[in-house]
Write a structure and sequence with these properties.
CATH class of chain A: Mainly Alpha
Structural class of chain A: mainly alpha
Number of strands of chain B: 10
CATH architecture of chain A: Orthogonal Bundle
Number of helices of chain B: 9
CATH class of chain B: Alpha Beta
Helix content of chain B: 25-40%
CATH architecture of chain B: 3-Layer(aba) Sandwich
Radius of gyration of chain B: 19 Å
Number of domains of chain B: 1
Largest sheet of chain A: 2 strands, antiparallel
Strand content of chain A: under 5%
Number of domains of chain A: 1
Shape of chain B: globular
Number of strands of chain A: 2
Oligomer: heterodimer
Number of helices of chain A: 12
Largest sheet of chain B: 6 strands, mixed
Helix content of chain A: over 70%
CATH superfamily of chain B: P-loop containing nucleotide triphosphate hydrolases
Radius of gyration of chain A: 20 Å
Distance between the termini of chain B: 32 Å
CATH topology of chain B: Rossmann fold
Distance between the termini of chain A: 45 Å
Structural class of chain B: alpha/beta
CATH topology of chain A: ABC transporter involved in vitamin B12 uptake, BtuC
Order of helices and strands of chain B: EEEHEEHEHHHEHEHEEHH
């Protein structure tokens, strides 16, 4: 079975990937913009936060700058698409590749340790809570605040315009919405959230690494799709809650898989498990409807 | 007042598929006029409407809407003056958004959008009032997803959305063509009522010559990207489809296109 520490660890990373899932919900679902920039903006957030913290910045300020850096990366992707007419998927791959070099430049070295530095978590450890519960509580607060802000934004005039842009661009233009501007704003916001997640991840793991972004997009998608399978996203609020649920479920599933000795899985199998889980999450809802259809047809 | 002067637009310039859609198209629509536009396939009707809306930019010529030269402006910058209903009932609304959210998008057409709640309480009464005028019971379904509505209902809501805020011109692009006959006549009646009540200036493209003569105050026929026929007032009163065909008796080419057109679409006579 899962140890208490492994359980809290899964919750902690799950909450961080909840932020990534918010970002992917914005790009993939709201804007219908398949954005792979996240594989670059996640380590970008980590790199910016790590370097600034090493230079003695306030960790929250450093985290804020990480989110801004993520937004800038997202804006570049969207501008490549909107202004230069590069296919959205390709535009995001270009930014992602470029970010690998940029992240190395920012950090100067491939890996920065933060174990001895003051992070956003440090003051909380001094409050006398259990060591492994601190990050869960703090990240829960961050996720809930982000969720509420994002939900309010989606209900605002600008947010509604963004949803219309993704759902029906021609109609949006006819209503006077600058659809290009909305795509840039949305993809920037999306990657801002991912940059924030990267910064928090680096601080909770005690290190920033240039390779830590590999597969973030798949994990985020897994969380998004898994969450949607559990909680039908009929409203924006439900869709956002589904993102968090999906991310935590995903991390718990991974933790169980790795801890179940009977399965004989090891840490290096992580990406394989992820691919299998994503495939299942995509296919299972379809299988369920197929079965229901068969069942009802037989009855009739 | 809308004036389009000598509009020219060629698609696929310099390719084997070069297609001159507008060839010196000029038309002036006065305040309060309801113009119906007919023409065979490829006559340039849709291109003309798209050019007025800003979805395509013309190669040359000038478009003026209420003293503002909009020739080079993109769609969203014209939208405060130009309202539009599309042919496809699915195109004018967002199916993933609720009815009230769609209306809230339309009530801000062409205006700045901020961070305040989009569906404001003070809008709801106005939404209910306009929806109840449709007699479809939609006023009690404000929170329902647009996708739950039928094509005719969605087109009726599109029409409401286009008339929710004032515009210099309302563009109707064969907006009843994709509906069954009964729904089509309902939406058409709704159209004429709204245009009359709000004294709108409107341009309606239609495939039916009968409809073109029955509705509105002026009829324009396009052919090969130009206005070839423009009739209004006394001359237009009592005019029937066969008269319209007769007007082209002397011109073999016209006769051929219009007759062929009616042979292909006998139901529209």
């Amino acid at each position: 079975m899962l140890s208490e520490i492994a359980f809290y660890g899964a919750l902690e990373t799950g909450l961080i990937y909840g932020l990534v899932a918010f970002g992917i919900y914005l790009s993939f679902r709201v804007l219908d913009f398949p954005d792979l920039t996240v594989d670059g903006s996640f380590p970008l957030g980590a790199a910016v936060a790590a370097v600034l913290i090493l230079q003695g910045w306030n960790p929250w300020l450093a985290t804020g700058c990480a989110a801004l850096a993520g937004m800038a990366a997202g804006a570049v992707t969207a501008i490549l698409n909107v202004k230069l007419n590069i296919l959205n998927l390709l535009a995001s791959i270009l930014t992602m590749i470029a970010l690998y070099s940029i992240n190395l430049r920012i950090m100067g070295v491939p890996n920065i340790a933060l174990l001895t530095e003051e992070t956003v978590l440090t003051p909380w450890y001094d409050m006398g809570m259990e060591f492994h519960q601190v990050p869960v509580l703090l990240f829960l607060i961050v996720v809930v605040v982000s969720l509420i802000l994002l939900w309010r934004f989606m209900k605002s005039e600008t947010g509604l315009a963004m949803r219309a842009t993704g759902a029906n661009a021609r109609m949006a233009r006819a209503q006077g919405i600058a659809t290009g501007g909305m795509v840039i704003l949305g993809v920037a916001l999306s990657n801002g959230l991912v940059g924030l997640a990267g910064a928090l991840f680096a601080q909770s793991q005690g290190a920033a690494d240039v390779t830590m972004g590999v597969g973030v997009i798949v994990i985020g998608l897994a969380s998004l799709i898994g969450g949607e399978a559990v909680l039908t996203p009929s409203t924006v609020l439900r869709a956002l809650i589904a993102c968090v649920i999906g991310a935590i479920m995903y991390r718990l599933a991974i933790a169980f898989a790795l801890n179940a000795d009977a399965l004989g899985l090891k840490a290096q199998d992580l990406n394989l498990i992820t691919a299998v889980l994503v495939t299942l999450a995509i296919v299972l809802p379809g299988v369920r409807t197929n079965l229901t259809n068969r069942f009802t047809r037989n009855k009739a | 007042m809308i004036s389009a002067t000598d509009l020219r637009l060629t698609f696929g310039k310099g390719t084997p598929l070069e297609n001159p859609a507008l060839r010196g198209m000029s038309l002036t629509v006065n305040q309060g006029e309801f113009v119906t536009v007919i023409g065979s396939n490829g006559a340039g009707k849709s291109t003309f409407l798209n050019a007025l809306a800003g979805e395509v930019l013309v190669d040359s010529g000038q478009i003026i809407v209420d003293n503002l030269d909009v020739t080079r402006l993109p769609t969203h910058k014209r939208s405060a003056r130009v309202a539009r209903v599309f042919q496809d009932p699915l195109a004018g609304t967002c199916e993933n958004l609720s009815i009230e959210e769609n209306l809230a998008l339309a009530i801000k057409r062409g205006q700045r959008r901020g961070l305040t709640t989009a569906v404001k309480k003070q809008y709801l009464e106005k939404f209910r009032d306009s929806l109840s005028s449709l007699n479809l019971g939609l006023e009690d379904r404000l929170g329902d997803k647009m996708g739950l509505l039928s094509g005719g209902q969605r087109q009726a809501v599109s029409l409401l959305m286009a008339s929710l805020t004032p515009s210099s011109i309302l563009l109707l692009d064969e907006h009843t063509a994709a509906l069954d006959p009964k729904t089509a006549s309902f939406v058409l009646e709704l159209t004429t009522n709204i245009i009359e009540e709000q004294k709108l200036t409107a341009l309606m493209v239609t495939h039916s010559m009968k409809q073109a003569l029955e509705v509105g105050s002026r009829t324009v026929m396009l052919h090969q990207g130009q206005v070839v026929f423009d009739i209004a007032g006394k001359d237009r009163e009592g005019l029937e489809v066969k008269d319209l065909l007769g007007l082209f008796e002397n011109n073999a080419a016209w006769k051929w296109t219009t007759t062929a057109y009616c042979l292909v679409n006998p139901g529209l006579l």
